[in-house]
Related to GTPase MSS1, mitochondrial
Amino acid sequence: MAFHTPAQSAPGQLAEDTIYALSSAAGRAAIAVIRISGPAAINIYKSLCPAKPLPKPRTAAVRTLFHPTEQPANVLDSSALVLFFPGPKTATGEDLLELHVHGGTATVKSVLSAIPLSQAGAGRIRYAEPGEFTKRAFHNDRLDLTQVDALGDTLAAETEQQRRAAERGNSHVLSQGYESWRNDLLLARGEIEALIDFSEDQHFDESPSELLGNVTEQVTEILRRIRLHDEGSQRGQLLRSGIRIALLGPPNVGKSSLMNYIVGKEASIVSSEAGTTRDIVEVSLDMRGYLCSFADTAGFRGEGVNRPGEDTPIGAIEREGIRRARSKALSSDVIIVLGAVTSDGGNGFSIVVDEETLRLAAENQKPTIVAINKRDIVDDSQLQPLVTKLHDTIRNTPGLEGTPPPIPISCTNARDASLRAADPGGIHALTDQLLEIFRNMTSMPEDLQDLLGVTERQRQLLDTCRQHLEDFMAEAQPGDGGVEADIVLAAEHLRYAANALAKITGRGEVPDVEEVLGVIFEK
Ligand code: GDP
């Protein structure tokens, strides 16, 4: 959503204008919903439906809508459904009128252009700015900023798991938590300041060091909770922006074939020519509810290593492809190392897996799956010992000890419609393993599920809060160097930390509320 701060957006002035907008999607549809919010909502109703009483609050009524000024009477819609919600207990906190009109483009257009011609009374009637209904909800205390954040995520959710993560943020649980931390911090700061101001002439129950000791205990607990929120946010972020999977392996093992099979459409060219996939092809997909992106990378081989069966040195373009593949692997969340069975020309077979790729996976400590393609060219009895041997090698590689056994797959068999087995190419087994990894990466304990709703914006502000709290701890516990605790400075850090929390919810003394709103509504 692009948000342009309207000139009249200060809370006290908002109510003057009545805003309206098409709330359902543009284009031809059976029904279109037009929402009107503000003090002129009732007047607009009276202008459009002059002879009929206002429907009972929150009760749908069928009405004929007329043009407000044209004579003889011009019927805009002969049977619209009208709902009236009296403020302040409405979505925006103001009087709200909803018109469910026939969704033909001309009908919608005629109603939208008739609304501002209604008798407004005071204030203007104008089309809403993007996000303005939500902004009014915030200013009228109907939503706090954590809920506005979550609303943005709910509207943007494309997969089931994104929807679930967004729903977590819709409740008050997160904002109530931040509010209670903020109150604790402000209370602690107040006590410290009272101590500074009056300690000389009044008797206090606690000594300065006792008081600081109590506050540091509270702050330690908040810091612990912030760490949990950070973890929840990272996990939620994986659900929201998608899990990045890098598919790595030497040329010709079948990376493009596997990716194309998984994606279900031709995302990159399948070719037997080595090194075709020089650049990275990336596709986003919904995998059983999880948003993930697959990156099919350049044929991957270490410097100075030739392709199996070839002795061509690595060219500049291929080297660049490998560099990109390596950086893709570094920035991905999950790595699939793909190898393949190859024939030695006679009856012997071996498995080609790039050791460099395995090392890369081990160094980065990313969840890793090893799959061996082209199992169709060898009998199971010959394949099994090769797979077992490879598994032993992998388990002995530091960093890859816990890697599950390699999964033998065949893209050729998976595509062969004549094979009647449930999973002829073994690729379901591969996706099952991927999903198990997704679940482990994105789950939170039952009692901390709400933390999945912590958005990136909130995480950044929590990080700012954490830094101020750590600064507070450094001032309040200066160590053994004989330095006195600077309680004036310590109290100031508590105030900064509380301000960061205020920016999360938009409640309390937010120093620059318009800036905070701008960040949210820019989405
Ligand atoms: P990439 O270079 O790793 O992306 O490999 P490709 O997907 O381009 O495949 C290389 C060659 O292997 C192509 O000729 C594919 O048809 C072939 N191929 C892919 N998967 C299989 C498989 O499961 N079995 C067999 N026998 N050949 C395969």
The two ends are 5 Å apart (CA to CA). The longest strand covers residues 75-85. The pocket of guanosine-5'-diphosphate is lined by residues 249, 251-257, 270-272, 277, 299, 373-374, 376-377, 410-412 (CB under 6 Å). The chain has 17 helices and 13 strands.
